[in-house]
Design goal:
This protein is α+β, with helices and mostly antiparallel strands and about 1050 residues long. Among the domains are: about 180 residues, no CATH class; about 120 residues, no CATH class; about 140 residues, no CATH class. The protein is about 45% helix and about 15% strand. The radius of gyration is 41 Å and the shape is globular. It starts with 12 loop residues before the first helix and ends in a 31-residue tail after the last helix. About 25% of the residues are buried.
Length: about 1050
Amino acid sequence: MPHLAVNGPRPSWIHLILLLVVCVVSAAAQRSTSTPDNNTSTSSTLPVPRKVTTTEASAAGKGKECWLSADSSYRDQLSLLLNTRNAKLVEVTVNLPGHPPYQLRDSLPHVYRPNLWIRSTSRQGRSLLMLDETYDLKSLTTLAIGVEKLEVNLTDHPIRCLRKFEDREEETLRIVRSSFLRDFADPNQNTRGSLSPDEHICSKHVEDDGGYAHFVYRCCRFDQDGEIVCLDVIEDNWIKVLLTLIIIIKVLVVLYSPMFLPETLYRIKYVAAQYLYHLPGPAMTLKVVVSEDPDQYGPQAKHKCVRLEELKNMEVFKTMVASSNWQTEKIYEVKVKDVRLSVKARRLLSKFTVPVSIKSILYNNLIRCRIRKLEPLKDCCNSNILGRFNPGIKMIKWHHCMKWFAGLCLMVLISTPWILRIYGYFTFEDITRDRQVEAAERLGLEIKYPGSIVLYLSPVHGLFIFIYIIFIIDSLVYGVLSKAMKEKFKHVARDCLRDMRERSRIAVVAWMTKLLVLPFTVFGVLGFLLFVPYLILLAVVTLPVAAFYIFPTLNLSIRLLINLFIFLCPDKLMNKCRSWHGKFSSVRERFSMHDVTANESFIQKHSYTRGGVLLQLVVILMVLISFWGGVLLQLVVILMVLISFWSVTLMLMEIVTFFVELLVYTFMGVIVNAGTILQYVTVLFLLFMYSKNTFSRVANLYQAYHGVIHRELLGLIKEEIDEVAKQEATDQENTAFIVQGESSSNTPKDVRPRIKIKENQPQWSTQGMLVFLDKYDTPYTPEKFFFETIDLNYFGCPGPIYTNVLAALWEFLKIVLFLLFIFIVVMAFGDAYQVSTTNQLLATVVGGFVPFLFRYIFVSDAGVGDIDTKSIQFITEFHRIINSYKQAWGVFDIVPVSYKEWDYKDDDVDAFDDTSPVDGNGNRSNFGPSNNVTGGGINGDPSDSISPLLDSTRNGQDGEFSRLEVGGDPGGLLSIRSSGMGGSTVISIDDSYPDVDIIVDVSTSKTRRFNALQSKGFEKGSTSMLDRTGHNPPIFKPSNPNIYV
């Protein structure tokens, strides 16, 4: 018996990078909030002075020529912000009434925003100047705490004296800066203003950095000698490391973008798995016919008919019906012992999995529209959207509309990150970007690449418009494509994704290590002499191969390009490539390429004649009207996948980078302003903890119950499971088992599966198929069975999911109200009695844990309880639901034991203890001698050939029946009874059809037109039939005019 090691979740590269980012952010924030040992101006954020402007005395002397004064309320407002609100940064917007609007902009071209000046009161405030200008957006306003804004009107003295210095930028800058440092006081008063030694007046300047604009804040203050010292704010080392990590994340997102796609969409173990069902007892008999006219088998033929070219998988079955021994229009009895089922992973549940999480509940009920099965909504969801006013058009049910609406909502939900990214750009970043471009253009400089394509180009750039058009085309085309074309699209994408995902990167590393030590293996110690040149040669060979297998983006892109090359490459070039591939076989063996390239496979190119290629060109021109096909179809599919993939990668890089920056800046704001924010963070953390705990109790309830049901179900077929589980994993196959209840009174006599056709694929309709055992001995049960057992008529059952979820939601709402009350009380009394933020935080935490104490300490937890599986009521209900359980599974293939042409006389008549023929499925066949009815008579000698349609061999005696095919049609049989050479012939027509299980449709457009023409005229009891041999058939009047309808 094989064993599986249970491994815990492994941290991915993104988790490690984010953890490193958190550590760096903490260090950077701690460094920015720490208090320096002295009040000197030299620090990591403020380097040594780059320029000493002038002394206070000389500045005052020159200031008498021109100086600025502010409104009388400026000092009061500034004092309020600094002393009462503890502002760490004050952004002052200045206006110059009486001057042109762009007076300062024209006078100070090297200042980024001449109307905006910043007063920083601490090192923490200056650290904000190192960050991006949109830090308030990216930090979700957490870094904007303590940042205040102030607007002031300035007046120059003498009036309009600033206009004298329009061409002298340094003089204008000196006048404005010295006025701010003096708090806009009169220079004749010889005052130094209210700035402390650690406070600065800052403005952002534009510098020429090799033809590119470089924006830097320059902060000025008075030193101890009365000199004005200006310093440039440069990035802290920790900030540089943080920005470097963000760049690394961008690169990793590009290289690993396919890994963001859920595995459940393309991996075989999640998409579908094969399970073998071995029929116990005698082999089952299926009646199968290959026909060019499926309609001849009656009105129910459409529920049994499959198109051969659209049949997925079923390779053994298709080989059987395509063999030379199989003839069309003849019914064959196929003996079957093994059936391979195609089972989607989401339809099965392991012992430790229940679909009761919030995500599963929302997805199943809203996206998959299972909410329509609720009793209050069932009638409404199955009714027509037009109700009783439907004029006779096709009925559209409400739940179909809701599915479309849910799909639309899902698309909007998927697009929400990009919508938020665009909102952030147009609300904040676009304005900042325009200002930077304008400032750079004033000086004839260019803007550097900001690290974001959206910020560099804008979301309405031609590149992004092209991407939007690609997505719209993909959506529209995918919506109008036929199902076969969609399958082709999925096939190409899934194959590439599977090959990309299921290649072991450890094997690649092992291969590189093996080659790296090869010189020492061959030459021993002398390998050190050859190691350097060998290493260069090895790098040329191994690095491209390693990059292909290690980085999923390169892997998927190159696979798509290889498939594209296969379909575009001429046959002559393909032959040359094959010859080169053979010549380099020795090189591949030397480098052990087989270790990493084993089992590589690509889509094979089909050969087409010149006429076929021309036909494919015509088909491509008609693609929007009809369908796609052939080589050019594959070309279009691969190009669409490749372009869409890179478009998604580009947008995904921007989205992930944007949200990583949001996380980094927000986390930094929480650390910097911990005293103010932690109270809110604590409440949010408590809400998250209680919500997870409340709804986890619901999941645990159903998990415990599912474990009991799972154990009891396996106990009913323990011997069968043990027999299969004894095999080794290499020999054991995934196996399905049918479980039959023993104690229920309504156990059906016939539980053998039946075939039905759904969406052109065979479905195996089973009764009691409840256990699926994979080759690693992991048992699964159907998800549908879980939902049917949770509401058994037994007191220990948990009941419907929605009732427990609503109860949990009500309990959670009560906790939310209590936490809200605690938070309001703490905030109100904290402000009233000047309680410190630390004490407020402690009070919030203590009050928030009160619901936890009541739930786990003062009130005993009843738990999920134990279910008495020996109870008569439980056993009866459990076996009743087992025996009534029915579900259809997709058929992967049918493995026949033998087949022969069907003869109704050989049908098994003992299965139902009567004379009605039955097939191997246990289906009664009404096709028998007792079903004949008498039709009209035809005069003439029966020895004459009345028609090839009615061909009598005259082997029977007078008064006996001879069964003949009507026009080669086994669907309608004639019985001819003659009463001698001169007597009349009576034609009897069966009014039933042979009970066929699978009808394989091999009709072409030509045969379908012929069949449609042949079926015309069957009206009012008079029929004109066309014989397929081209002869003129007789005209007769059938007893049942609807038998051919």
